[in-house]
Every structure is written in C-alpha cells, then in structure tokens.
Amino acid sequence: MNAKEVRQLFPILAQEVNGKPLVYLDSAATSQKPLPVIEALEKYYREYNSNVHRGVHTLGTKATDAYEGAREKVRKFINAKSTQEIIFTRGTTTALNMVAASYGRANLREGDEIVITYMEHHSNIIPWQQVAKQTGATLKYIPLQADGSISLTDVEQTVTPNTKIVSVMQVSNVLGAINPIKQIAEIAHRNGAVMVVDAAQSAPHMKLDVQNLDCDFLAFSGHKMCAPTGIGVLYGKRALLEQMEPVEFGGEMIDFVGLYESTWKELPWKFEGGTPIIAGAIGLGAAIDFLEEIGLDNIAAHEHKLAQYALEQLSAIEGLTIYGPKQRAGLVTFNLDDVHPHDVATVLDAEGIAVRAGHHCAQPLMKWLNVTATARASFYLYNTEEDIDRLVVALKKTKEYFSHVF
Amino acid sequence: MSFNNPLDTLYRQVIMDHYKNPRNRGVLDDENVEINMNNPTCGDRVHLTMKVEDGKIVDAKFEGEGCSISMSSASMMTQAIKGKTIEEALMLSQIFSDMMRGKAYDDSVDLGDIEALQGVSKFPARIKCATLAWKAMEKGLHSQQ
C-alpha cells in the first residue's frame, strides 16, 4: 500500500495546525475518516434516512437493508459464523459493560474469579470491579513481564478452575504489546471460563478471526477504524448470547409486550433496544469496505514498519524513555527527561503534531510503570516515515526548549 | 533558542521558576482544611492543606504531581493567598478564573507572579492544568464559610 496515496482520501489531514502541516499521531485515541465513509454518511442522510425494522415505506426498507448489510460486513470482517452474533453497540465500553452486566451478573457467584491484566484500559477494568462487588466474585490480575508483555506461565498460574471470566485486551493502547489471545483463550476454556477480548486497538489494525481465536466475546469501536463515533460491536458466541438477558429494554427489541410480561426478539435484536445507531452502522460498513480494499495485512505490515522505524529513531534521542516491548503494534509511548508529557504535547502541538498525553485511561498500568503520565504517538494507515521524522525533530526541539527555559 | 513565540507566552520564566523551585511545597501538620483534587482526564493531582484562623488563611502548602503549568500555578496560588482573608482569596480566585477564560478582569489587585499565567488562556487545552489548585482552594474555603 502507498500511504501517501491513502492519505489523499483523508481531507482532514490536508490542513495546517499552528502554521505547520498537520501530523496526526493520535489514531489510537480516534482515527481520521476517509472520503468513502464521509460520503456514505452523507448519502444516508441526504437520500434514505429512515427508521429501520418498522413501517413499510421505501426509505425504511432501504435503511433496513443498509443497516443489516453493515452487520453482514462486520460478520465477514471478524469471521463470525452468523450475523446473529453481531450486536451493534455504542462502542467498546458499552459492549464490555453489556457482557459484565448481563453474562457476568447471571453467571458469577461468591468464590468465582474474574481474571484481567495490569495493562487493561479502564473500560475493561471497572465493569468487572462493579460486577465483582455485585456478585461477590473476586477480581484477579495477570502480572506483566519487565518489558510489559504477558507470559503464558503467569496466565496459567492466575487462571484457576474457579475462574469464570477471563478478559484481556488484544493490543495495549499504552505498551503496544500484542497479547497471545488464542493461547489465553485455550487456558481459559481448559479451566471452564469464558474468554472476553477487548479488540479496540486490534480490530482497526489487523485481520481478526473470532473462530480461530476461539474467543467467546469480542468488543471493538468503529471510531478507531475510520468509522464514525458512537458505533461499536459486541461479538458473542450464539449459544452464550441466546441464554443472556438484554441489558436495555424498550422499543425495537421486543417480540410481544403485555401488561406485566414481555418477550424479546431473537438475536441479535434483543440486545438493540431503541432506535439503533443506523448512520453509525452504515458508516462502519463503509469503513470496513475501505479497510478491506487496502487489505488488513497490508495495513498491519505498514504499521509494523512505522513502529520499528519510530522505535529506532526515538531511541536515538537522549533522555527519552520508551515503554513496552520491542514487538509491538503501531504506537510508541514515551517520556522525555523531566519534561511533563503535557508540556511535551503542547510544544509538539505548536509544531503541528498531535500526540496524546496523560494516563491513557490506564491508571493501574501507569502505577505499574511508576509514572503519572506519558506521551504517546500512534500510527495508522495514513502515516508515513516523514511524520515520524517530523516528530523526532520536534522532540529534539522540545528538549532544547525546556533545557533553555529551565 | 528560536522557537515559536506563542510558546514563550505560555512558558514564561516566572512559571518555570515556580515549577523548578515550588514555594510552599509540602503538607502542613497543623492544618484545618485539607483538599485532594485530581484532574481525571490527565492525571494531575493536588493535595492542598491550609490553616484558616478567624477567617484568615494563616498558612498554606501543596503537594502534587503534574505538568509545569499545574504545579507552578499551585505554587503561585499558595504564595498569593497566605495572609489573605477568605473573601480576598475567593475574589482572587474569581480574578484568576476570568483571566483564564480570557475575560476582562479586575486589574486593581496586584497579582504579582500570577500575572505570568495569563498566557495560558491562549492554550485552551491547558486551562484546566492552571485552575486545578485554585479549584481545590475554593472548595476548601467554601467548606469554612
């Protein structure tokens, strides 16, 4: 793939910020949107905006076809067996909360264990803390290796026959570590637990195959993979979703409503109460078409190259500390001497470079790293080696600037 | 060195001096007002202790973690409120808040070092850093009223 050509399809990138050409290195927070996605949204709103699954008019049918068509695109994208296993949600956070609130509350008892890791995002920690409090289950953490990776020996030692749920991120939004989900799922299953995968940082960047991973649930967000905000996906194995209660009740998800009792629609709609995120799903479908046309393997290879180049270039800056293992996804988290990451980010912004600074919604991991905050540069298909060169020059300037003002 | 001028309006020498040599850093052992405040979006944290007697702030100290703007602002704030009455400190806080929002503020009061933080108003993403310690002080003093 040619990143420079791909870049032309992202109108937002062709602008100056603070008088410098924008270098966008914050795709792990949210990705930019390509023309095909923007156009799909515009087409929906201009030509066939309508509610789905109700009414018999022409626009309603078109909207329903597009919405359900997007579900089929998602199914193929992650190789699920059936569209009944694809639930549209607001994002990864909502999807993980649904698993905790529905599956977790129904299946956890006192003495049961939920196992997660120290590197999880808050959205894969707090839902489990809450369900643990409600059910009396215990929350356990798989420790990290010195370089921030997970060892399967530690997984073996943490997961026990009392473990009912194992929930792990596939790619760390801070360390860039790529976790061995398939092997962790195997350990979880051997102990009788279900495997939940937070794929927020992996779905945009690599080919996913839920059948091959053999995970029971998998969650991701559209906005990190070129789709709009407010749309995400919960994949669940059909047998599990069948036995789960909906989390939200109301219109759209019912079969029959009586005065005191109601019944639910079949899968996946019983989990989609209210008017669904129609435009968002259509935008996600367009994003999947876009990413698949370029090829997820090509995107992964491009980002791998960028990450290795960034590691090489950034490690050459004296006083710069990089967090996470060498084998990593397309992001680099770092600190520069004693300069606080907010100050780093402000100086980079003055140079037109957008990075993230803060705790990255991973406070337990920050504590493990023994830092209060870090800066992060994250890459996507539209980034180039020149972007990294600009970052390196700006970081050197930052260093010089602060040695000057101090 | 030659960097962009806008940055120099943010990182003024006085600010860097307070960041490197914070005034009133620590924890009072005879405090009667204690406030912990976080900026949950970025992880900045301020622990403020004050000794308030007869409506007057006799002493104030802060501990915390954060960027140059949040820590220097905390340092300047403690310096400014010591010896002030609760009303005077809250009025100062109002002036500071107006200053951060780029609004016209009462310039009859001598702001001393705090004036140097004026440049923060041009960096909307950093205003929360500057106001953290002030919010802690306001919360603490309101509890005394």
Written account of the structure:
The complex is a heterodimer of chains A (406) and B (145). Chain A has helices spanning 3-7, 35-48, 58-78, 92-107, 126-135, 152-158, 181-190, 210-213, 238-243, 278-294, 296-315, 341-350, 363-369, 385-405; strands at 16-17, 20-21, 23-24, 86-89, 113-117, 138-142, 163-169, 194-198, 217-221, 232-236, 254-257, 262-264, 320-323, 331-336, 353-354, 356-358, 374-378. With 406 residues, chain A is an alpha/beta fold. Chain A has two domains: 3-25 and 296-404, Aspartate Aminotransferase, domain 1, CATH 3.90.1150.10; 49-293, Type I PLP-dependent aspartate aminotransferase-like (Major domain) (Aspartate Aminotransferase, domain 2). A seven-stranded mixed beta sheet of chain A has the order 4-10-9-8-7-5-6, with helices on both faces. Chain A is globular and about 75 Å long. The model of chain A has no long low-confidence stretch (mean pLDDT 96). Chain B has one domain: Alpha-Beta Complex (Sufe protein. Chain: A), CATH 3.90.1010.10. In chain B, a hairpin with a 4-residue loop joins strand 1 (33-39) and strand 2 (44-53). In chain B, helix 3 (68-81) runs parallel beside helix 5. The interface between A and B is medium-sized, with 25 and 25 residues.
SSE diagram, text form:
The complex is a heterodimer of chains A (406) and B (145).
Chain A: H1 3-7, E1 16-17, E2 20-21, E3 23-24, H2 35-48, H3 58-78, E4 86-89, H4 92-107, E5 113-117, H5 126-135, E6 138-142, H6 152-158, E7 163-169, H7 181-190, E8 194-198, H8 210-213, E9 217-221, E10 232-236, H9 238-243, E11 254-257, E12 262-264, H10 278-294, H11 296-315, E13 320-323, E14 331-336, H12 341-350, E15 353-354, E16 356-358, H13 363-369, E17 374-378, H14 385-405
Parallel strand pairs in A: 3-15, 5-6, 5-7, 7-8, 8-9
Antiparallel strand pairs in A: 1-2, 4-10, 9-10, 11-12, 13-14, 14-17, 16-17
Helix pairs in contact in A: 2-10, 3-10, 4-5, 11-14
Chain B: H1 5-10, H2 13-20, E1 33-39, E2 44-53, E3 56-65, H3 68-81, H4 86-100, H5 127-142
Antiparallel strand pairs in B: 1-2, 2-3
Helix pairs in contact in B: 2-3, 3-5, 4-5
